[in-house]
Specification:
alpha/beta, Rossmann fold, 9-stranded mixed sheet, 9 strands
Length: 634
Amino acid sequence: MSLQAVWQDLYDSRLDWAHRAYDLFMDSLDPRVRACFADGGTEASVVLFGRSQVGKTTLLLNVLGIDEQHLARVSQVLRGGRSAGQSSTATAMQYRCAADDNWYLKIQQQQIRVSQQQLVEKLAQLRSHVENGLPSPEDPVEVGIPQKYFSALSRTRPQVRILDLPGDNPQNQQEALHVRQIAGRYLPMADLILIVGKLDDLSFLNPKAFALPGISDWRYTPNRFRIITTFSFSLQSEVEWAKCQTELDASTVRAHVMSQIETHNIDLRNGADLAHLYFPLDFGESWQNTRIGDPDTFRRMDGINTQLMDELLVDIANSATVHGRLRQAADSHIVATRLKQEESQRMHVELERLMIDKNRRKDLMKQAKNLVVIQKDKVTEALVPSFGLQERLEILQKCQQGISCPSCISNLSGLATDTDALIQRISECCNHLIDVAGALEARDILPFNIRSQNPVERAPKKLREQLDRCFSSLHQTFNGYAHSEYFPWLSNSFDEDRAQLRDLMERATQLTIHFTAGLWWDVVESFLRDKVEKLHREKSELATRESALRESERRYARSRTNVTQQKKRLSDFEQEMDAEVARGERFSRYLNDAFDEELAERRRVISDEPSIPRRLLQLLGCKALCDERDKLFG
């Protein structure tokens, strides 16, 4: 073999050791992951991620290379019969070019050939199955698209497999878990990841919009990603902007898009600020409508649109090169470590904030509980005591014990025989009854503690009026006499009036007892009415505080849930990053071992080589070997 041929062979094999390491690394992966992505050749493994209804389906068909005249038909089939404007992706889907002109469907590792109508029906069934909360397939559902629908130009480019992930708004927790698991398994080995969103809603690039492993770190590994904005030229705001530009090219449009991204406070450091990572595009129905409705804008922007789409396809093709895959795999543990450090710090700060909020909510809940206990005591204090017949009789009995007419007044013997003497006894009786009734005290009369002034003492005129009416008939009798003096030897009037006076005094005593008892009953009833009103107020306040307590308990429960969820997110994230670090470190070990073995073999060949020129070429080959290693680990 000539020296030139020897050198050519050494140069061509300078990365064989890395290829062996890569193959060994790929063999260590889950077979489903390995089958889904890079096949070791030039086929590009692309992941498409974005919200619903931003043009993902049309974009993936363009990237796959579907001929323009077949776009509408293929799109309708892949939507499972669902019309445009509705989300067609219910689970992770992977699309590729079939080996022939037939449709193929692969679910749970079982591939079948299907007719176009059968595929539409099966995709519709799958979407309905998932949307109704039933489990999604463990692996992405794979669709093989007939070769006849691909353009002739697409056959000159590397083939592409596109994994289309459902957007960031899963219908339920089960769907969210499914998408997360798929992303965790397949994203690490993707050649390129396309993040898609409408230009008029750049919030899709906010880090908080990404909850999936492998997507949320796009700013840390920007070369693995391309940012696609759709409707980039047909939006009215963009049409007006373009009209104001004297010169328009791809660089101007990219700079314009990036300036809009910056207004959303999205950090684009560490290489995420490179313009070639951003692709403002327009395609599908919106672009066709622009061609018809605004031919001037279409004419000015179509060349830029086509250029950017071509650049995207070139990037996809370049991503599938061996060097690109090797460097990506070699750097993965470095990226994962950096991402873990930065994101973990941010998540720990958020966890600390949630912990502070939880503790504050706990203190507020304790305060609310104490207020409820205090208010319950107030309600107990305000409870209305019983006041029925028995309690009324007790008041009446106590009034009877405290009110009587003394014998010195009620004894009517020895009275002078004139009406003034009888009138004098009436006055003495009334005054005495008013005095003794007014001398009664609440603590001696009422069955429970009420602070109240004696109602008779407070208003003696009412009792006086009652007593006056009691003796009014006798007074009328007195007023009918022509003389105030009685003549017992002429008539019985004195004895009759004295007897009537005795009866009226007894009746006045009973009247005073019942009248006074009635006044005390009114005192109690007024007290109880106030008590009932106060009880209602206290109960209402208790209901308010109990409601506040329930709301406080709900907020505390939510804060505890938030802390628990954040801890789980942090734990899951760190586990995912640890797995990424371990995966990258494992590949680095494969590379180092393969390099050491290759270098040892080259040294053996050099030591056995008798020809000095050939030995020199072998040394140069070792230098090239080391250079390639430095490129990978540099």
